[in-house]
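During the second half of the funding period, the structural biology subgroup turned its attention to how the target accommodates small molecules. The most pressing case was magnesium ion, which had performed well in the primary screen but for which no bound structure existed. We therefore specified the complex as follows and requested a full 3D prediction, including the ligand pose.
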Amino acid sequence: MPLGKTDAIEFIGVSKEFESSTAVENLDLAIPDGLITVFVGPSGCGKTTSLRMINRMVEPTRGRILIQGEDNKDTPAHELRRSMGYVMQESGLMPHRTVADNIATVPRLNGVSKRDGRSRALELMDTVGLDRGLAKRYPAQLSGGQAQRVGVARALAADSPVLLMDEPFSAVDPVVRADLQRELIRLHETLERTIVFVTHDIDEAVTLGQRVAVFAEGGRVAQFGSPEEILREPADDFVASFVGHDRGTRRLTFASAGEVPIRPLDAEDRPWGDWRLALDDAGRPAGWSIDDRTMVGGSLFPQGGSLRDALDSVLSSPSGWGVAVDDDGRALGLLSSDDVMDAAARERKSRYGVGL
Ligand SMILES: Nc1ncnc2c1ncn2[C@@H]1O[C@H](COP(=O)(O)OP(=O)(O)OP(=O)(O)O)[C@@H](O)[C@H]1O
Ligand SMILES: [Mg+2]
């Protein structure tokens, strides 16, 4: 069955009322199989409550939730919880257990031997890019990014078709966060799980999500669609303002930079003038020099990247020339800002049919 063609999880008229407030209001939402679906929205709009109703950590007041077509009420709550990986904000690791024991928690609960649990934990550390040498450490001895990876490994250990992730990357710095996001996309490509991911960051939502549900005040979904649909055609004023003013550059995330020429580093006409790109021994960019000054910085353009990557690379480069790199980070050539702007203008024209 092709991915995304059936529904892994379906909310049907689901509401959740707490004593003093309605957290979720009449939610109807079909989450496709095998894709990453993101719940995004401001604080307090019912994202966590909705996520927790999937595995019955929270019970709805009204409505039904189907998992692969079956009412989740038909499975005992403790069984359902164990059958879905769950990553919470702040990683939620058990402080008195080692990294390996934390990761092996669910397999151990399912009766896997200590030895097998441990070897599974080590494999999963490889999967999420954690050094095996960290296996015997305790959570307090990890960096924020490492702790989040342990949380992801622990969730994967459930070997479940569904993975629930509640703001798993919000406590780490932007660089580590971008790293974790890339890893998650890579993992998802190889593991083909259904992932439901909660964030209040629209950038994270459109980077990770193949479907995005924008939650609004009072636990209603204001829009559900592909990231591109949400950026291009916000359903109402709330979504438009949540998506924000720089949505033009966000949209370029979905446009290929394939037409932007990469100029060879040894081009004879040297359109970059006196600027010189310094390379390390492996041929990776190390900085820009001019006169006697060297400046580091500038995001790199990964070969095959998006028009937004290309734009970032030229806007952040000290010389104004973006540096294209291959998969190993070696410099391939340079992008001119004029070429990138022309490509952005062509993209705009092809979308709106006007205005080159
Ligand atoms: N156990 C609870 N008892 C009472 N009210 C609750 C409970 N859990 C959540 N709420 C309320 O329900 C609403 C939705 O909360 P929820 O945690 O789902 O929001 P959220 O979208 O995840 O917010 P955030 O982005 O801040 O995590 C809030 O008004 C919250 O105060
Ligand atoms: Mg929350």
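Two results from this model are relevant to the next phase. The chain has two domains: 7-84+160-254, 276-352. The chain is about 35% helix and 25% strand.
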